[in-house]
Amino acid sequence: GQNIDQPTEMTATEGAIVQINCTYQTSGFNGLFWYQQHAGEAPTFLSYNVLDGLEEKGRFSSFLSRSKGYSYLLLKELQMKDSASYLCAGLDSNYQLIWGAGTKLIIKP
Amino acid sequence: IAGITQAPTSQILAAGRRMTLRCTQDMRHNAMYWYRQDLGLGLRLIHYSNTAGTTGKGEVPDGYSVSRANTDDFPLTLASAVPSQTSVYFCASSSDSSYNEQFFGPGTRLTVL
């Protein structure tokens, strides 16, 4: 079956660094997405990885290892506005997104 | 303003009633999707459309139907609502069905009593 696993909740301190892990099992693989979702709002796109390695975009970076079925999202210099849920989603062989349940990130001052 | 809109924002519905959730995008995206999001679960795909005139079933299609008469609109209909359909519904679109960076509407919060 297809499955995306990520931690339910994480807590971090303002100004620090946090890494949110995601493991995936999909039927075929066409890439890995990360989305951010603030409470009561719609998900918004953060990153897409299809090749192994690290993609950096400002304070956010995303890493992919296809051989390990593993990805992480790295958030640096955390700000209070980064408090949100972070959704990991794998793109399967039919180009359908398989979504994880999301990681709720709580930022403390 | 380019984007994707949904209506209504929220709705309380009696069980057994018929309801249509509306979704419109003005980005000329070919692909559109309907998801439901429930606490503790990931987004689950209900139906999708890769291009105008075609639709397909997702992971949880039972009790729902869709149509795609044109590029912009993708309504979702609950023929006879049941309490288990209480959820937040998101419509999304992407430029095509292969790359799949999806843009989401603001959501409809539906309560079925």
Folded structure, characterized:
The complex is a heterodimer of chains A (about 110) and B (about 110). With about 110 residues, chain A is an all-beta fold. In chain A, strands 2, 4, 5, 9, 10 and 11 form a six-stranded mixed sheet that branches. A five-stranded antiparallel sheet of chain A has the order 1-3-8-7-6, with no helix packed on it. In chain A, β9 and β10 form a beta hairpin. Chain A is globular, with a radius of gyration of 13 Å. The termini of chain A are far apart. Helices cover about 0% and strands about 45% of the residues of chain B. Chain B is built from no helices and eleven strands. In chain B, strands 2, 4, 5, 6, 9, 10 and 11 form a seven-stranded mixed sheet that branches. Chain B has a four-stranded antiparallel sheet with strand order 1-3-8-7, with no helix packed on it. Chain B starts with a strand and ends with a strand. The chains are: A mainly beta (about 110), B mainly beta (about 110). Chains A and B meet through β5, β9 and β10 of A and β5 and β10 of B.
Entry summary:
The complex is a heterodimer of chains A (109) and B (113). Chain A has 109 residues and is mostly beta strands.
List its salient traits.
heterodimer, A: 109 residues, mainly beta, six-stranded mixed sheet, five-stranded antiparallel sheet, 11 strands, B: 113 residues, seven-stranded mixed sheet, four-stranded antiparallel sheet
Write the SSE topology.
The complex is a heterodimer of chains A (109) and B (113).
Chain A: E1 3-5, E2 9-13, E3 18-25, E4 32-37, E5 44-49, E6 53-57, E7 60-65, E8 70-75, E9 84-91, E10 97-99, E11 103-108
Chain B: E1 4-7, E2 10-13, E3 19-25, E4 31-37, E5 44-49, E6 56-57, E7 64-66, E8 76-78, E9 87-94, E10 103-104, E11 108-112
Parallel strand pairs in B: 2-11
Antiparallel strand pairs in B: 1-3, 3-8, 4-5, 4-9, 5-6, 7-8, 9-10, 9-11
